[in-house]
Amino acid sequence: MSEAVSHVLVVVAVLIAQGNAAAPLRKSDLVRLLSSAEIPPDELAQLIRRNCLTFEPTTRDRNDLRLMGADTATLAAVDECAQRKAPAPAPVRRPPTRRITPPAAPPAAPPAARPAVLEVQPTIARVSPERSGFVFGGGQRGTAGAQLPRPLVFEVRDSAGAPLSGQAVTFTGINARTQPAAASTDAAGRTRVGVVLGEHAGSATVIAALGVVEKQVAFSVAAGSAAQLVVMCGRSTISGHFAIRPDSEVALRVTAQDGFANATALLGLRAAVADARIFRVEHIAQDSAAGTVVLKPDQPGTTSLAVIANGLRQYLTVTVPPRAAPGKVDCR
Description:
Blueprint: H1 3-17, H2 27-35, H3 41-51, H4 59-67, H5 72-83, E1 133-136, E2 141-143, E3 152-155, E4 168-174, E5 176-179, E6 182-184, E7 190-197, E8 202-210, E9 213-222, E10 228-233, E11 236-237, E12 240-243, E13 250-257, E14 263-264, E15 270-273, E16 279-286, E17 291-297, E18 301-309, E19 312-320
Parallel strand pairs: 2-9, 12-19
Antiparallel strand pairs: 1-3, 3-7, 4-6, 4-8, 5-7, 8-9, 10-11, 10-13, 13-14, 13-17, 15-18, 16-17, 18-19
Helix pairs in contact: 3-5
């Protein structure tokens, strides 16, 4: 199958899943399409212009879409849809008024009254966007990659405030994932899902979708415990072996990162040299974000340097060449 045909099938599959091949796109649909590598940006922009959206995009929505990889053309299509007039809501079907069938009069007998016959049409339950939404679990804070301690609770009610059971709700995460990704409401009109935060420190969002109803809730994502030290000389990260010029002082910048490369606080920075005759640690300074280790060469030779912080050690091998050695050797 050609790549172009594959792209079309992806778009058709999403629209069929909405139950209408020309249905407007929800925010969760845009997130899924942006997460897929099967549809090019220009085709996605055309799809948005053709079908438009079920929601009026806010500044936060645009930031979320940009985080998921939306390009300028896609965001322009979103803005274009926001300027269009929203379609008129579908008329609400109401039960017919009570109708009484008049009694039939027998030919040879006086008319007799018959019991009234009522025609009752079943009422179709309709989800209320105003009365449905997240009721517990929003606003929690956790570390990157961790599961939040409390589940999310989403409640579905009709316009009269009555809970609706058996309603299928799908959940989409931005820098987060839910367990499960979809669930049905119970007798109280509620469904519960767990949330595992993503890898990036900052914020995370979970979107719940039920038909054209969409609600979202945000969380704070903090960096985890330090898992590695990063040592830099100038703009270069150094590890293993490097050399420094004998007639100079070299300042090494030290930071700490968690297991997902998020910056975390630097604590208790120290440095130790195996052979202080070759070079010595001239000065150490630090704040919560980073630290500096200044090295001063004394004589040619090679020895090891240990950079210590947050209970971690980064071992480096340092060479001080003879003064007559050609070439630039700072942190090489």
